[in-house]
Amino acid sequence: MLISKLARSLGIVRKTALDAAIAEQEALKAELAAAELKAAGFDPEKLTSLEAAFKADIASGNMEFRQFDNAKDFADYILNQRTIPLRLERSLSYSVVQNAPHSEKLIGYCDACEQVQPLLIDLQWGDGTEVSFRERAVCGKCGLNTRQRFIMAYIRHACIAHTGIRIYAQEQVTDLFKALNKDYPDTIGSEYLGPDIKPGAVVDGIRHEDCLALSFEDASFDIVISNDVLEHVADLQAALAELFRVLAPGGRLIFTVPFHYDTEKTVRRAGIENGALTHYLSPEYHGNPVADEGSLVFYDIGADIFDYLHEAGFSKVQIVCADSLVRGYYGAPSLFVAVK
């Protein structure tokens, strides 16, 4: 009897805490949406719903990209200037943990679909205590997560203003490549299929490329997109040199990596020595759409990635990020832009 009463009591406490979290989320969403709309030049008091806010913001054609020339300024923004978004993200994580294993849906404008869509959040790719907003907030229509949707946003709103642009993406079987290819049908994509295949070869409809020895001629592309690839290459400096080589003058390398912005030096976890794989730290693997075993992580990318890029020859390097409730950009998704 006592145990059942205690269980019921704990259930009530849990529900009360969850209800409070949900109420906090709605208040924070309203505050963030109002701030975002004001920044876009709209009066939030004249809007009747978040749906109206989405439509008004999209109609403005505006999107604010935050740009940082070094890791220090980016870290300061992430750690010290995101008070309200961080509160909302922590509250959302709490709700997801309490409701696990069930997922929850947010609402946001997907820059890939160009429509308001449900965005799925759950505990996948996280540590079990919080949502990995970088890898989740998955669009219910196109299947792109936050960082992938942000790449599409950057390309559409800030990068490509004309047709005929030459794009190479270091992926081919993903939903992101499908979205890119829909907008820019001449986009070339590839996957890494193994060390014994010649770069440029096509296997079962999939083009193979080795980031350390690309098959393309010099200055072949205006844009190269590398989405969570560079941490998996055996030689980061050689890979950046190859990407620089295949870009035309003025071309841009747009890439994402798990970025350890609070770590000064990039850490090498593994390498190839005398033709053999050598582990310097315990092996870590990330998901790979063409390999069930995943991809080995060779590098934990630190703040000195700016130095790596400049040494490869890039003239300008920036981190670009965005906080946008309207677009479902929770967790301040970021990418690097390096200009040749």
Give an overview of the whole structure.
This protein has two domains: 2-147, no CATH class; 162-339, Rossmann fold. Helix 1 runs parallel beside helix 2 (50-60). The protein has eight helices and 18 strands. With 340 residues, it is α+β, with helices and mostly antiparallel strands. 35% of the residues lie in helices and 21% in strands. The chain starts with a helix and ends with a strand. The strands form six sheets. Strands 1-17-18-10-9-5-6 form a seven-stranded mixed beta sheet. A three-stranded antiparallel beta sheet has the order 2-3-4, with helices on one face. A two-stranded antiparallel sheet has the order 7-8.
Instruction: Please identify which CATH superfamily of the largest domain we are dealing with.
Output: Vaccinia Virus protein VP39
What's the shape?
Answer: globular
Low-confidence stretches: 5-13
N- to C-terminal distance: 72 Å
Summarize the structure.
35% of the residues lie in helices and 21% in strands. The chain has helices at residues 2-39, 50-60, 71-80, 83-99, 146-159, 175-183, 236-246, 305-312; strands spanning 66-68, 104-110, 115-121, 138-139, 167-169, 188-189, 202-203, 206-207, 221-227, 247-256, 267-268, 270-273, 276-279, 285-286, 295-296, 299-300, 316-321, 334-339. The longest helix is centred in the first third of the chain and has 38 residues, at 2-39.
